[in-house]
Each structure stands twice: as C-alpha cells, then as structure tokens.
Amino acid sequence: MTIWIHTLKTYSALITEKGGWMVLSVLSILFGLCFSLDQASYYYMGDLYSTFQIILISLLVGMVIGPIYWLLTSLILFWLGQLFGGCSSSSWKDMAVVVAWSGIPFISKLILWILSFILFGQELFLSKTPELDSSAVLILTYWTFLFFKFVLTSWYFWLLIKGIGFVHDFSIWKALPVFLIGMFILRMIFYLSGLTIYPF
C-alpha cells in the first residue's frame, strides 16, 4: 500500500522483483471489473438488465477488458516514451508493472461500489431514480460517493503519470504529454473497436 504515498520507491521495488505476473493479471481484471461497473452506471444499463445480470456481465467483460486495457496501455505508453527520448534501458515489462500497480486507487472504488449497492440498489444503473430523488440523505451520499470516485480516478491518473516519468526517466512535465497522447490513442482504439467508450 506504500504506492499511495511512496510511489517512486514502490515502483522501483516492484520492477526489481522478478515474476509477479499473476498478481498483475489479477489487478488488471479487478480494474476491468470496476471500469465495467462505471460504464454500466454511466449508460443506465439497469433500464435493460437486472442488477444480477449487470454484475455478471461486468465480471465477464472485466476479465476481458481489464487485461486488454493493461497490455495496450503498457505498450502504447512505452512506445510513446521511447519516441520522446525515454530511457533506453527500460522495457515495456517495466511499464506493465507500473500500469498495473498505478491502478490501485481506481480499483479501490470497488469498496464504494459495494456500499453503493447496499444503499442504492438497482437505481445505480437506472435513468430514473425515484427513491434516490426522494431522500436528501441518499442524494448527499450519492454525490459524496461520486466525489470520492472522482478523487480516486484522478489519483490513478497521477500515479500513472509519475510511473511514466519513472520508467522513462522523465520529469512530470515531459511525462504529461506522453500520458495525454496515450490516453487519446487508447480512447480511439476502444471507441473504433466498439468495445467500450470512456465516460469522460
């Protein structure tokens, strides 16, 4: 959990360690699950499916989307970093480690998802939310959860930018355009392939 604060030291230790690909794969699947749930809520999938079906679909989709996103992100960010003059001694495997572990804040949103299921139920995925709208406490709680989800997603992006800088020996300001271009390329790939669309 040191990645939250001592990010660069944690990256260095993780990259130095050999193996651990099973852990990285699990992290990518959990990332995919959280991402799929975000998508289901953003596109009001509850209007078409039950909560059980949404969770099941999210699990199945997450097992596919998560690893694909992880590998594509690692390859693209490594390739872009090399184009920008990144460290020649680094490898895409180093970037794969960074991408997987930087997703810890994003994956942590699953805790909020569990609490949200308990409090809001099916309305998490519905376009119309009569029970939620009728309670000031639920509305406040809902927006509080959204705020924390935004913070955790932003933290994930920040760790990823720092990771790009670490792998390629860049400053934050040089890592930032690599991150932005990489995210744009990923968005286009996912959009054109019809796999999913980012909710931002």
UniProtKB/TrEMBL annotation:
Pfam families: Yip1. It is found in: Membrane. The chain crosses the membrane at residues 21-45, 51-84, 96-120, 140-161, 173-198. One of its GO terms (cellular component) is membrane. Its main location: membrane. Residues 3-193 form the Yip1 domain. InterPro entries: Yip1_dom. Keywords: Membrane, Transmembrane, Transmembrane helix. It comes from the Bacteria. It is a multi-pass membrane protein. This is Yip1 domain-containing protein. It comes from Kroppenstedtia pulmonis.
